[in-house]
Amino acid sequence: MASSVKHFCTICHDDGISNRAVTWCTECEVLFCEDCEKPHSKSRLSKNHKIMTAEDYHNLPTFMQEISSQCKDHKKKFELYCSFHACPCCVQCITEHQKCQDLKPLSDILKHVKSSASVQLFEKDLKVVKDNLDTAITYIKTRISTINNQKTKVVEEILYIRKSLNDYLNKLEQDILNDLESKHSKLKSDMSTLLQQMGQRASQINQMQSQFTIITQYATELQIYIGLQEIEKTTSETTKYIEDLESEDYFSEKNLEVNISSSLQSILHDVKSFGDININTTSSTLQIKTGRKDQAQNLIVHVPGIEKIKPFFNDGIVIRVVVIFTESPYDACFTKNNTVAVTLGLAKHTTLVDIEKNKIIQTIKFSHSCHGAASDGETLVISSRQRRCTRVNLNDMSHTALEGMEGVGFIALFQGNIYGTILFKNKVCCFNSTGEPLWIFQHQDINRPVGIALDKNGCVYIASIGNSSIAEVSSDGKTCKTILSEADGIEIPYSIDINKEAGIMIVSSDISADRKNHKTAFCL
């Protein structure tokens, strides 16, 4: 645990003296000055303690300095490690871990930790994560620059549309003003011409009216008689002229009005915005390096009791023989109760074995070779690596041919769907219960796939013998990443299975030349 005063001797500081620290004891977890370090290095109890310079100690990350070798609860030195809880324990902690079956001496866990491959892997992981962060930061900066450019283009487009609208509205405005001017001029001209004509007639009538008294006073009877006829003619013509004007609507009120286009007016009511600004999401072009999953678990080897997963083997020793076959078994799976289905390859039949009574209880014959086997307790699916696979109803033993699963070898069932691998085409497939393909997936991390299993979330795990790896494929069959490889001790993995309730994976790998020695890796 780090000293509260980083640069001073812990012993001296407790006595109120500030002496500069020069060393740090990793076991006492104390900083020493030159004077205090001498008796510490000579004492029988501490002369073999590992020390480091105070400068090197202070170069450690803060979180590392805060990691103590003593239990905070009991003030005792850690001596054990609980793999189940992933924590060190002191001798008094054992009471809290009585049900834990995997307590190991801490010294065994730490013996080769610095030289283990995990340290190099974590260094590689840090580099991958740093590279990914740097790549992501550069990518985000590029995206910021991109959206800035997009904003500029959007503004330009908005201004262009606005100018186009202004220009177009200006043109429409000028057109209607020109039309107004034209019609106003014509109307005014017609009325001015009419006014001039009427003025001439009014002048003539006014003259006759002003001379009428003189005519009646001074003209002779003959002159009056003939003159009145002329006056009558003029007034009659003028009266008829006025009546004609009236009948021909010359006196109708012609008013100038404007009808604004309804389409143009609708802009004020119907157009609520200039447009919409949308954020459209597309797939990222960012390339992130694949990292290992749950790396910290690789530091501690956690192997649950093998008898829990393979009932008839204990540390690789055969406990008992259940059934001996004359043909070569290819695959096996539990069906229900104590029954196991065993496929027998080119013999074209599969046997149901009662593992409690050690006997074959039924032989199921097929029209094709029997390779992979998978069951959910109600149905049994047998693959052939050929064109046809078969689904067997375990209640009435009826057969249903599945025609669309050509080349499928090992198989697994999950929620009614059938999952399988195609060895030489490097494919992982998902089919519905009738054998129709739902998705087919290929990836560079999948090389000569064999074993297949699914977890409780529907993620698919593939054992590839071509590159000695375990790959995880997403439940929709679209993405893939390697979670275990040769760096994790995986060598030519052939079979894989998952206990969905316990979250434990078992991988059988590294078959020796005499086909007798197998390594089995367990992963939580």
Automatic annotation (TrEMBL):
Q: Give the Gene Ontology MF terms in alphabetical order.
A: zinc ion binding
The B box-type domain, residue ranges: 4-54
Keywords carried by this UniProt record: Metal-binding, Zinc, Zinc-finger
The family database entries (SUPFAM superfamilies) matched by this protein are listed as:
NHL repeat
**Is the keyword Zinc in the record?**
yes
- Extract the InterPro entries matched here: 6-blade_b-propeller_TolB-like (IPR011042), TRIM45/56/19-like (IPR047153), Znf_B-box (IPR000315)
> Is Zinc-finger tagged as a keyword?
yes
PANTHER family on file: BONUS, ISOFORM C-RELATED, MEIOTIC P26, ISOFORM F
What protein is this chain from? B box-type domain-containing protein
Organism name: Mytilus edulis
